[in-house]
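Weekly structure sync - notes
Attendees: PM, LS, DV (DV joined late)
Agenda: review two folding runs queued last week.

Item 1: First target. Sequence and structure tokens pasted below for the record.
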Amino acid sequence: METLNLSIALSDNERTRPIAQGRFQPQGVRLIPTVVHPSEMFWRQLKFGDFDISEMSLSSLFIATARGDRNWVALPIYTSRSFFHTNILVRADRGIAHPQDLRGKRVGVPEYQQTAALWSRGILEHEFGVPARDIEWFMERGPDKSHGGATGFQPPPGVRLNQIPPSTNIGEMLVSGELDATLLYLNNRNLVDRSTLDLSAHEVIQPLFPDKPAETRRYYAKTGIYPINHAVVIKRSLHERHPWLALNLFHAFVAAKKEVERDTAETLQSYFDTGLIDPAGRQGLQADPKGYGMKASRKVIETIAQYLHEQGLTERRIAVEEVFAPSTLEI
């Protein structure tokens, strides 16, 4: 079989590093890696299609699919997941002690359609009774360098969404008091995000959930959901020419993940340290909460599709089968 030379874009984290460093190559493929911040990576892929393979924002991928863009095929390889709502930051002088206190407040968001923001809004609504229309939103990314600029984003009906001027950003507006809170804060340098301030240096900025592990345990125990925001995608044209590529890539990423997690004790300890699992429940872990494959993740992926439709970002609920490679649906 001829070896394919394919470009791949990855973020820098423990699960992608073995692939980016070339320690794992799919059979029949030589991967040529580029390590790039996800904010920039997704914009480049959605607007220019720079890479054959990459990580991808699941919300933007579903939105693109809903609007007829079928340039990408997803694989159930999840390179980033987090309990995003526990990252909400608030000004301590605005009377925001509980999620319900966000009603009527001015809240920043790097990009309204990004998956981390989608999860936080969905959890605010379903867990705490605060729908997106009860908040006034301020978005940092402009249409020229945003995922939404490439997918035709328009604010959903009933949502108050303001564009932050290019002369400022979320960090500066939080510190100055022009914003009351932010759903997410990204200050890693890249071509898309503009905030640079270290908010930890400003005591007035505090987490909405002071005990993040406790909220993580509560939410996971109730829902069984460990939110996903990145999957891996390949160009559909490439998948159609080489359908075997999907599972070969999947096996390489699984092997890389196993290398990272081969010490079971360290893996479990990381779950306890992040609060995903109460240390008292050490013996109750039956499956890998970070597992790859559709069987381990269908509920989470279908929740993304549900939230996108509920929040007015897709006109219909997109089926998993429309987005993911057929050969990966049963693994």
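Item 2: Second target, run right after the first with the same settings.
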Amino acid sequence: MTTLSTPTETGAVLEYRLTAMDRCDSCGAQAYIAAEVNGSELLFCAHHGRKYEEKLRAVATSWHDETARLAE
């Protein structure tokens, strides 16, 4: 996983960790959500991330959501 820095219109820097190489563990689509569960990282597309979000957030130690990138 790579961290990318992209300047925004306001001059702030927005950090992206997920790239097009990161794929959803459920279907293989591009991942926009990363969750850490029991020391392992799970990657999900927006669809599967939303589908499993409620259950995963209860056990995840971290939740990283880049689905806002889909609206850009």
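Discussion on item 2: The CA atoms of residues 37 and 60 lie 5 Å apart.
Action: LS to circulate a short write-up before next sync.
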